[in-house]
Design brief:
about 210 residues; mainly alpha
Length: about 210
């Protein structure tokens, strides 16, 4: 892993985690400065900041408490977010579905603009945020929505939903989509446990579903 200077890591930490946490829900894992990190933690932080994310936002500050696990998880996450066979619009749609399922404001705030940039329609995200089956979905979006929703709700995927998703994604895409959903389940669980708040001015989920 490459070396990154302390000020660069500190900037990445400040941009990602410390922003906007409300006083009534203080984060449970104080942000580690480079000086507070063990060598193993620093090595993982260097790798994250040097990679495509550029910042230590989201679950990474909490995951640093288990640095070997953090490194393995960040590598999985990098692959699923930046190198998945699932097209970015559908990938981000599935991440937003996971954020909604877990009421994970930080995850929603981080990925909503990425989903918009990838081409997801704002109306689809709005319906999803409101807990509705989105109207006006394209066929590939509906296939992903039905697959992920059924898998999460019933813990299985029946043949019709599987066939529709497989037609869009193929074998590799199905596995990438399942892995993406499971990874962001873990991310959302971490964010909620650690009480990582979304920035005050970021898009947030409405309460309830």
């Amino acid at each position: 892993m490459g070396k990154t200077s302390g000020p660069v890591i500190a900037t990445a930490l400040g941009l990602g985690i410390a922003a906007g946490a409300p006083a009534e829900a203080a984060e449970r894992f104080p942000t580690l400065t480079p000086e507070q990190m063990t060598p193993a933690q620093r090595q993982v932080a260097d790798a994250i900041v040097a990679g495509p994310r550029k910042t230590m936002g989201g679950p990474f500050n909490a995951w640093l408490r288990s640095p070997e696990l953090a490194d393995k998880l960040q590598q999985v996450g990098e692959h699923l977010r930046f190198h998945s066979s699932v097209p970015p619009r559908l990938n981000e749609f599935a991440i937003l579905m996971t954020a909604r399922a877990w009421d994970a404001d930080y995850e929603w705030s981080a990925h909503y603009p990425l989903a918009m940039k990838a081409g997801l329609k704002p109306a689809i995200a709005a319906d999803l945020a409101a807990g509705k089956r989105p109207g006006g979905m394209a066929a590939d979006e509906a296939a992903v929505y039905d697959f992920v929703t059924e898998l999460r709700r019933t813990h299985r995927v029946a043949d019709p939903a599987y066939a529709a998703a497989h037609k869009v994604l193929g074998d590799q895409g199905i596995i990438d989509l399942v892995a993406l959903s499971g990874y962001y389940d873990l991310v959302s669980m971490t964010l909620n446990t650690a009480q990582v708040a979304a920035p005050a001015d970021a898009p947030k989920l409405p309460p309830g579903r």
